[in-house]
Amino acid sequence: MTGHGTRSRCAVSAALLLTPSLLLAACTADAEPRPTVTASPPAPTAAETAPSAGASASWRPIDDPVDVATQLEVPWSVIVLADGTQLVSQRDTGAVLEVDAEGVTRVVGEIDLTAAVGEGGLLGLAVRDDDDQTLLYAYLTTADDNRVVRMRLEGDPGDRRLGDAEIVIDGIPRDRVHNGGRIAFGPDDRLYVATGDAGDPTTAQDPSSLAGKILRLTADGEPAPGNPFDNEVYSLGHRNVQGLAWTQDGSLWATEFGQDRFDELNRIEAGGNYGWPVVEGGSDDARFVAPAVTWTPDEASPSGLGARGSTLFVAALRGERVWQVDVTDGAVAGEPVVLWQTELGRVRDAVVSGDELWLLTNNTDGRGNAAADDDRLARVPLAPQS
Q1: Straight-line distance from the first to the last Cα atom of the chain, in angstroms, rounded to the nearest whole number
Q2: What are the CA-CA distances from residue 294 to residues 237, 256, 334, 337 (Å)?
Q3: CATH code of the domain occupying 73-304
Q4: How confident is the model over 6-16, as a mean pLDDT?
Q5: Which residues are CB-neighbours of 159 under 8 A, at least 6 positions away?
Q6: pTM for this predicted structure
Q7: Exposed/middle/buried for 165, CB within 10 Å: 0-12, 13-18, 19+?
Q8: Residue 383 pLDDT class (50, 70, 90 cuts)
Q9: Mean pLDDT calculated for residue range 211-239
Q10: Once rounded to an integer, what is the mean pLDDT over residues 187-213?
């Protein structure tokens, strides 16, 4: 499973239908508390994105989270558009919501996923401007598989709507648990797709399987040139990745749910094997990349991941907090810092846009203890550390 706990306070073809319905959550099994562990991952490789120009700064929240939108229904992913409005996916209803400057929500489209069960549903979102159109990419669960689709985002703010959906990639194994679901475009303009082992751990070590992987694709869903296995797979040996983000130096980082002992923050390298199911957490086995940070499941159960400069923000479900992690030269610098423990409840997503951190709670997913305004989209201003 992927994250328990309660709140401490009260075939590539044509289109999918845009209509209502859906389902999901995330989990991790119980474990005895252990101290946070940090480790240095391997140095960056030439196959990865080149570092960005300019100095890499650490960023800090300068205020507490402020609610932007409330009473959301099992939100899973938030993205911020170029005009500053937000789009939020709702796992169970299949709705994509637009949030305006006043926090008013409206449905821009609903994806029909009536067969989705358990942790499946409408999960990650990503956006890409392509020529004169804006395309919304969505990771979702169907009766047969997990897949990524894309739809034109038409109209102006306040009057947006989704066009017909076309399949980008399908055939990703699905199950009631471990569906992965985070998607993001990297600095190299490739689409990165985080998948889970779909309840079959053996698939994570099979480079020909799409399960238990991070995939790297073109915007049209083809294997990206330069991938290490000459297919869609970029890294393997993952149990259930639900967070992807890049720091200023070009490093790709991912959060991963463990099983009984260790959740992980990993620095992802092309062709890297992260050990599951042979290893949970770190090991002395040279075949596997050691995690940069491990937590016990009750400290984390990590999902979304945001980055600004050299600082990462990890959304924790069962841990009911946000972890702030600084990195330098592809390794963790210092001890992770706890932010807003128990104040928000379960935190599903963390996204940085400009100088703001956006957070989605997940207290209505069946595992949390929802308060009156749950679930919520919140905003936090950030500033570079002096």
Answers
A1: 41
A2: 16, 10, 14, 13
A3: 2.120.10.30
A4: 33
A5: none
A6: 0.87
A7: buried
A8: very high
A9: 98
A10: 98
What is the mean predicted confidence (pLDDT) over 213-237? Answer: 98
Summarize pLDDT for 311-331 with one digit per residue, the tens.
999 999 999 999 999 999 999
What pLDDT is recorded for position 37?
40
